[in-house]
Structures are given as structure tokens and as C-alpha cells.
């Protein structure tokens, strides 16, 4: 997804900006650009493709400048070409801007700028209008021009602007797109995301909606939309910068798979006391508030929505509140029945997923309270929620989510128990039982990881397959869906997940000799049913690898191959079984020579619709 970095100071702007953009590479991008202000001149360079191409373009001393802005773009409006890359420069060459988000009324603005002012557009982007608008309003104060231009823009934006005619400062504004600023020894910094600044400062200002920020070499000043100065405090970011690097693994994804035991432990830490009672101070809702809730909607996208599917029956079991799982992109448009008695539970690793942000806004407009499970502190979803439960996966860099998923499930289980205890629908003994089982989970995940050799062997046997199906029942449907998504995103193999009971309603028509299936059978109460489904597929000569719990004797009589996860309770199995599928997808992707951490067409956080 797009990234913004700005710098003003005594150091080299191009170096600081490129270093910040490099730190944001993991988010995915398809072009990059930089605008530097040097000796009364605006120097703009952009390239499609990798950052290295841009770095090569600005290598010379003529690009040494004290101030500038940079951008990595992930194409939405218009192809990933040099013309469409940011920064965009105004018609008169005075202003350069970078933009994250979408200007919804750009067509109207474009028509107006072309007709009234004769401006010729050089890109296909929505963002270009911003540069022209600012230039039209620009007399001698860039901040004033940005303020006026923002009044004309509808949509979501984090915009940073520079001009050689107001050369000492970067002016930026945000609405519904992340923006942060900070100071380091060598100057002032601005970025769309925390990792871009981590190398230089850990104390940052989180810019709020409609705020304007002015960054100079020795100050960060924040203003409201009328340019009245605001007094804001900094937030300290306690991420370990080293944790954001690969730590010896070939790929972030592999590192993050290995970090799952720690992530789960961290998610449990401080939330359970010695007596296995919950200490969820993060969730400040009262029994009365909870008793008033008659329905929970889980809203999330992709992997996070699969965590929601695993969490749903567990919340219903312990809290005795009906739960529906909705994709955020569907929920926000389908006129959901949401009242002040609804609790919307948003799940998001990044906390910046546009569809999920809009889903919670829709819910709030309708009077619901929002509880979110988020991994990134201070992210938009966290800030807009009434209650936040942070999963403690640590920074997740690989596009394919792994540790965020397993820690989201653990978070949902703790929330389910907490709600149940408050409402009196779960006994202390049952609560203790699940908490103890959760505490065993890191060791079980570790065991699957240790079986990597076998998983790699299995990947070798099957990596040339062109189609792979995943089936399961109950919580194993969510595992099948997550397994299928993992495989699709990083290997590009055509795969498909379905509830095993649904096969006979249509999909079974696809089963012929050697059609390849993973059958997940970890839910004891559905075991017999799953066995029949496996028989059903085998009778049609499908090739089946079954994923079961250790000790299983019957599946191996039917399936072609069996992978056993350590024996554990049904509720724990989805957290353990998915690790097998993460490793399988990883090794298949590697054998196929894929770009594992940054698969094609994908970005880490989807901040556009
Ligand atoms: C997972 O592997 C994906 N890359 C994707 O489905 C992701 O989970 C989804 O975009 C939601 O992101 P979020 O958790 O940051 O909201």
C-alpha cells in the first residue's frame, strides 16, 4: 500500500526519505518517487517498479537537499507507471504533493480545473488534482493553501506538500488515512506509518483527522483545520526495531511463523493471574453494558475474518450472545440491523484496513459500541473503537498473515471468557480449563514447527499441483479457508475451501481421479461425519491428505497420507492445525520460486476500498 515519508533538517533529505520508504517496502508498492527542495528549486524524480530504480536516479550530489517528500505507490487509479507515480507537481511547477487515500470527488474537481483554469492533466490519478488545487490557492503561505484545498476534497487522504516558494517546511493534512510526525537529532520527520520513523525516533505525534501539521528542521507544529495551533502530546512507540527485521530467516513469513509461540504467550501475559482468573483491564465494559448487548457482529477482512469464524462459536458458547461474522466490505453496504444493543467486534492486524474502518463507522452511526482486536497500537481502528484489545503478535511484515491470525484467535477466546465471566454464563472452573489449555498452546505450535522437515517433504510431493481443495467441518472450515487463502496468496495455486458437508450439494461433481484434497478432521464431535466425507471423496478416487490429531487410527486407513498435529482440545486445534498449513504454503511457494513476503498484486494493509 502507499507510503509517505517527509524530512526537513540538517541531514540529507533524500537519504532520510529513501531510508523511510525502504522501511515501508513490506507494505507493497509498484512505483516510487521523491520531491526535493534545493536552492530555490523543486527537483522531482519518479520511477515505476522497485525503489532501487529511484535510488539510482537521485544518486548524484545535485540531489543533496535539506527538505523533501517521498512516496511509494500501490496503484488504484491508473496503472503503475512513472506518470502516475507520486509526487505530483502542480500546473505551474510550484507545488509537489504525495497522497495516500482516495479523492472521491476528483472527477468533478478535474473537470473544474480543466475547464475553468485550462489545466492539463498528466496522470490518470485522483491525486493530481490536489497539487493543482493547492497551487491555485497558494499565494505565499503553503499551509493556508493546503487548508483551502482540503476544504474542496472529499474522501480519504494523508497529503504532504512542499514548494520551493515556501522552502523551509513540509505541510501535511490528514483525513481518514494515517499520518505521524516526529523530531530527531537531524530534523523533523513525517510519515504515513510508524516503521518509517523507528530508526530515527520513537516519540511521535499521531496526527488526527482534519489536522494540519507543519514540519520544519527543528519543529513539528500541529494545527486544527482553521490553522489554530493545537497542543498535542507525543506517543512513545515501544516496538523493537530489530523485531522488524528478518532475524536470520530467509523470509519474514518464516520468521513470523516461528514467532507464534511467543506471540501467543505475549497475548496471554498480564491477562491471566496465578489462579487462572482473567485480568482484562483493557476491556472496561460493565456487566450492565454487556447484558444490554443482544447481538455481536464480527467484522473483518481476509485472514482476520477467518479468526472471526473460529471465535464465533467460542463467544457464543461462553458468553451466550448470538454472534454473526460479516466481511467488512459486505457489512458496510448491506443496511445491517444494528442498534444501541449491538456490539461490533472488529478484527484487524494493521488497524488500517479501509473496509473495516468504514464498517465500524457505519456501526457507530447506528448507535452500536465497537470493540476491536487490533495488533498495531495507535492505529485508526484502535483509535476509533470504544474498547480495544491488543493482540500481541508484534510487527507483522510479510503480506501473508500468520502470527496475527493465531494471536487474534487467542484474543477472541480471552474476550469470550471475559464476557462469560461478567455475565455469569461460564463458571470459574470452565474458564480456568480453557485458560490452561491456551497456556499449553505455544508448546503445541512449537511441536508442529519442529515437524517442518515432514511438511517440506509433503510440499515437495505436491508443489506442482495446479488445484488444491480444502475441506473440514465446524472450526475446521475456518482452518480450511485460512489454509486455502495462504496457499493462494503466496503460491498462486488455484485453491478452494468448502465445508465438507456441502460437497454433496454440488462441488462433488468436480471430484475425479487424483483431484487433490486436504481434509481437516480435528473436531472430535464431528469426527464420524468427517470420516464419511473422506470416504465419499475416496470413493471418487480423490487423493487425500488428512490433518488429524495425534493418536488417530481410523483416518489413515482411508486417506493417502496423514499429518497429525499434537493432541489437544477441539477449541485449541484451529490454532495448532493452521501452523501446518502456513508451513506447507510457505514451502510450496519456495519450491515454485515465488516472492513469498510480497506476493504479486497484494499489499500488507489495504487502506483503499
Ligand atoms: C492475510 O494473509 C492477508 N494478507 C489479508 O487477508 C489480511 O488478513 C486482510 O487484508 C485484513 O487485514 P487486517 O487484519 O490488517 O485488517
How would you describe the overall organization of this protein?
The protein is built from 19 helices and 25 strands. The chain starts with a strand and ends in an 18-residue tail after the last helix. Strands 3-2-4-1-10-9-11-15 form an eight-stranded antiparallel sheet, with helices on one face. It has a seven-stranded antiparallel sheet with strand order 5-6-7-8-12-13-14. The chain has a five-stranded parallel sheet with strand order 17-16-18-19-20, sandwiched between helices. It is globular and about 80 Å long. The chain folds into three domains: 3-243, Aminohydrolase, N-terminal nucleophile (Ntn) domain (Glutamine Phosphoribosylpyrophosphate, subunit 1, domain 1), CATH 3.60.20; 246-448, Rossmann fold (3-Layer(aba) Sandwich), CATH 3.40.50.10490; 452-591, Rossmann fold, CATH 3.40.50. The protein has 609 residues and is an alpha/beta fold. Helix 13 (403-423) runs antiparallel to helix 19 (573-591). The structure holds 2-deoxy-2-amino glucitol-6-phosphate. 2-deoxy-2-amino glucitol-6-phosphate binds at residues 301-304, 348-350, 353, 356, 399-401, 489, 605-606.
Amino acid at each position: 500500500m502507499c507510503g509517505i515519508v517527509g524530512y526537513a533538517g540538517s541531514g540529507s533529505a533524500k537519504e532520510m526519505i529513501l531510508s523511510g520508504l525502504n522501511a515501508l517496502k513490506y507494505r507493497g508498492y509498484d512505483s516510487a518517487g521523491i520531491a526535493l527542495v534545493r536552492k530555490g528549486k523543486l527537483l522531482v524524480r519518479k520511477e515505476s517498479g522497485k525503489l532501487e530504480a529511484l535510488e539510482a536516479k537521485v544518486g548524484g550530489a545535485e540531489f543533496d537537499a535539506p527538505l523533501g517528500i517521498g512516496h511509494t505507490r500501490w496503484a488504484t487509479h491508473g496503472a503503475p507507471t512513472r506518470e502516475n507515480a507520486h509526487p505530483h507537481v502542480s500546473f505551474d511547477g510550484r507545488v509537489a504533493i504525495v497522497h495516500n487515500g482516495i479523492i472521491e470527488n476528483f472527477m468533478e474537481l478535474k473537470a473544474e480545473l480543466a475547464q475553468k483554469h485550462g489545466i492539463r492533466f498528466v496522470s490518470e490519478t485522483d491525486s493530481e488534482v490536489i497539487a493543482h488545487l493547492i497551487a491555485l490557492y497558494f499565494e505565499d503561505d503553503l499551509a493556508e493553501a493546503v487548508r483551502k484545498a482540503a476544504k474542496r476534497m472529499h474522501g480519504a487522504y494523508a497529503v504532504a506538500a512542499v514548494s520551493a516558494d515556501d522552502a523551509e517546511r513540509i505541510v501535511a493534512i490528514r483525513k481518514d488515512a494515517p499520518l505521524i510526525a516526529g523530531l530527531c537529532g537531524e530534523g523533523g520527520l513525517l510519515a504515513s506509518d510508524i516503521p518509517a520513523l523507528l530508526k530515527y525516533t520513537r516519540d511521535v505525534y499521531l496526527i488526527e483527522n482534519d489536522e494540519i501539521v507543519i514540519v520544519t528542521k527543528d519543529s513539528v507544529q500541529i494545527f486544527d483545520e482553521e490553522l489554530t495551533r493545537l497542543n498535542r502530546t507525543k506517543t512513545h512507540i515501544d516496538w523493537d526495531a530489530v523485531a522488524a527485521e528478518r532475524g536470520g530467516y530467509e523470509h519474514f513469513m518464516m520468521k513470523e511463523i516461528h514467532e507464534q509461540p511467543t506471540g501467543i504467550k505475549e497475548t496471554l501475559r498480564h491477562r491471566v493471574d496465578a489462579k487462572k482468573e482473567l485480568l482484562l483491564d483493557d476491556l472496561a465494559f460493565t456487566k450492565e453494558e454487556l447484558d444490554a448487548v443482544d447481538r455481536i457482529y464480527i467484522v473483518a477482512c481476509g485472514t482476520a475474518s477467518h479468526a472471526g469464524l473460529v471465535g464465533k462459536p467460542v463467544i457464543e458458547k461462553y458468553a451466550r450472545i448470538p454472534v454473526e461474522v460479516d466481511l467488512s466490505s459486505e457489512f458496510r453496504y448491506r443496511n445491517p440491523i444494528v442498534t444501541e444493543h449491538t456490539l461490533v467486534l472488529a478484527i484487524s492486524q494493521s488497524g488500517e484496513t479501509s473496509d473495516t474502518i468504514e464498517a465500524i463507522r457505519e456501526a457507530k452511526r447506528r448507535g452500536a459500541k465497537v470493540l476491536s482486536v487490533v495488533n498495531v497500537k495507535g492505529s485508526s481502528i484502535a483509535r476509533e473503537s470504544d474498547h480495544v484489545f491488543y493482540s500481541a503478535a508484534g510487527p507483522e511484515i510479510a503480506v501473508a498473515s500468520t502470527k496475527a491470525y493465531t494471536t487474534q484467535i487467542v484474543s477472541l477466546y480471552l474476550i469470550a471468557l471475559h464476557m462469560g465471566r461478567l455475565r455469569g454464563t461460564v463458571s470459574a472452573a470452565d474458564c480456568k480449563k480453557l485458560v490452561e489449555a491456551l497456556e499449553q498452546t505455544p508448546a503445541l505450535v512449537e511441536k508442529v514447527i519442529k515437524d517442518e522437515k515432514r511438511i517440506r517433504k509433503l510440499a515437495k510431493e505436491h508443489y506442482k499441483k495446479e488445484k488444491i481443495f480444502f475441506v473440514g467441518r465446524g472450526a475446521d472450515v475456518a482452518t480450511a479457508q485460512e489454509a486455502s487463502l495462504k496457499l493462494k496468496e503466496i503460491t498462486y495455486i488455484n485453491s478452494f475451501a468448502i465445508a465438507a458437508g456441502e460437497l454433496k450439494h454440488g462441488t462433488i461433481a468436480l471430484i475425479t481421479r487424483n483431484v487433490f484434497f486436504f481434509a481437516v478432521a480435528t473436531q472430535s464431535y464431528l469426527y464420524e461425519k468427517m470420516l464419511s466425507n473422506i470416504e465419499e471423496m475416496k470413493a471418487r478416487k480423490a487423493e487425500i491428505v488428512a490433518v488429524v490429531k495425534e493418536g488417530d487410527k481410523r483416518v489413515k486407513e482411508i486417506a493417502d497420507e496423514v499429518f497429525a498435529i499434537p493432541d489437544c482440545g477441539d477449541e485449541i486445534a484451529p490454532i495448532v492445525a493452521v501452523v501446518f498449513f502456513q508451513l506447507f504454503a510457505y514451502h510450496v511457494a519456495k519450491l515454485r520460486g515465488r516472492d513469498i513476503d510480497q506476493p504479486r498484486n497484494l499489499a500488507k494493509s489495504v487502506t483503499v476500498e
